[in-house]
């Protein structure tokens, strides 16, 4: 008997329920959202809050509750993860993320820093180790601090060195900017409370919470299992892209968790053991406005089953970052933006069109988002063609 075929309709049903987007599947708090999605993209701070708010049954307290989870209870942690990207993870998952993805990325990041400093004639690795130890000690004393504040305690953090001299992207880095990033990837520091509002990109730093050192292969199996529970079925290409691992690591993890083969339109895909049976979809049609870099829109490398190829030019920037998206019943139908006056505007791009009930549902979600944002203004860190056009900046 061949593997079971999971079609587009069922994949969209799984997405609606498991990604907490259908009305009956919404979550009670930010920790529940993060556990359900495994990781929230954290490169753009606003993504975390707007993405959480889109999935809560009662989104009114999203900012307050998410800040509590991130900066008071520390049940959520902002740290580097897959593909050397900043995410927000449940704190219970930090050891798994560090062992499965962080160690290898960290080794490359530190080697690159030492190499770049040597090329620039900057001090050697022993000097860097002294500065690092001093900076971590200062951070322990302060609790949280900006790079500038740490440099008051350890002035060598202000040292500058040239980067990529002679190339079109050459520049000058401070030791602090590069070293703190390396320490973040190594799991020694994490981003703390921002200097400004919840949309601010200027973060303080804090020592990372202690966690056990896990076996790499075991951690990879655990991370892949959790992600497949949320995003399966997924192809090997999807898994390799999302994790940033080598294909041999992906295959080893699939074997370790006893993943089951199924068939999707792209070919062979995988689900976790026991997840082969058909899934019941949401009881009611649903609409959602998701932020730029949302983990649902960025969840798979193969996206044709929920995002028509013809929409990509308008909704993605040149580096492959997705902008704000409008969803109807498990597929992207357009995009949205917030103008300077606070208005939330949107446009349907789907060439097949959408029913009137979809437009009404999207309008209702846009009005709710506008009310939720209040005086807040959300401008994506990575601007996309449609978002800029909707804002009046073609």
Automatic annotation (TrEMBL):
Record InterPro entries: AlkZ-like
A UniProt-annotated Pfam family: AlkZ-like
Cross-referenced PANTHER family: LMO0824 PROTEIN, WINGED HELIX DNA-BINDING DOMAIN-CONTAINING PROTEIN
Protein name stated in the entry: Winged helix DNA-binding domain-containing protein
Phylogenetic placement of the source organism: Bacteria, Bacillati, Actinomycetota, Actinomycetes, Kitasatosporales
């Amino acid at each position: 008997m061949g593997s079971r075929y999971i079609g587009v309709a069922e994949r969209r049903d799984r997405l609606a329920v498991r990604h907490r987007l259908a009305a009956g599947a919404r979550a009670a708090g930010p920790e529940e959202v993060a556990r359900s999605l495994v990781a929230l993209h954290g490169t753009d701070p606003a993504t975390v809050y707007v993405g959480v708010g889109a999935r809560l049954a009662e989104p009114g307290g999203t900012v307050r509750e998410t800040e509590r989870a991130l900066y008071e209870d520390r049940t959520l942690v902002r740290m580097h993860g897959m593909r050397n990207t900043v995410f927000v993870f449940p704190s219970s998952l930090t050891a798994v993320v560090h062992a499965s993805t962080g160690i290898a990325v960290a080794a490359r990041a530190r080697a690159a820093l030492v190499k770049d400093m040597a090329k620039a004639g900057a001090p050697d690795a022993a000097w860097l180790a002294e500065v690092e130890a001093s900076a971590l000690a200062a951070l322990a004393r302060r609790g949280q601090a900006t790079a500038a504040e740490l440099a008051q305690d350890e002035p060598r953090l202000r040292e500058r060195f040239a980067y990529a001299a002679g190339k079109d992207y050459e520049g000058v880095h401070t030791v602090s900017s590069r070293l703190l990033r390396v320490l973040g990837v190594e799991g020694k520091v994490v981003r703390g409370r921002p200097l400004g509002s919840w949309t601010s990109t200027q973060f303080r730093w804090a020592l990372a919470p202690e966690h056990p050192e896990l076996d790499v292969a075991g951690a990879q199996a655990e991370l892949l299992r959790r992600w497949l529970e949320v995003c399966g079925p997924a192809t090997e290409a999807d898994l390799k892209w999302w994790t940033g691992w080598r294909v041999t690591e992906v295959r080893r993890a699939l074997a370790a968790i006893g993943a089951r083969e199924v068939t999707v339109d792209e070919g062979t895909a995988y689900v976790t053991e026991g997840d082969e049976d058909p899934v019941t979809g949401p009881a009611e049609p649903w609409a959602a406005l998701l932020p730029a870099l949302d983990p649902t829109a960025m969840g798979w490398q193969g996206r044709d089953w929920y995002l028509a190829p013809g929409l990509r030019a308008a909704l993605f920037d040149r580096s492959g970052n997705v902008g704000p998206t409008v969803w109807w019943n498990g597929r992207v139908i357009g995009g949205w933006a917030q103008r300077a006056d606070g208005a939330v505007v949107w446009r349907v791009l789907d060439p097949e069109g959408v029913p009137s009930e979809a437009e009404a549902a999207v309008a209702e979600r846009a009005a709710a988002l506008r009310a939720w944002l209040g005086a807040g203004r959300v401008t994506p860190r990575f601007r996309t063609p449609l978002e800029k056009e909707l804002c009046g900046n073609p």
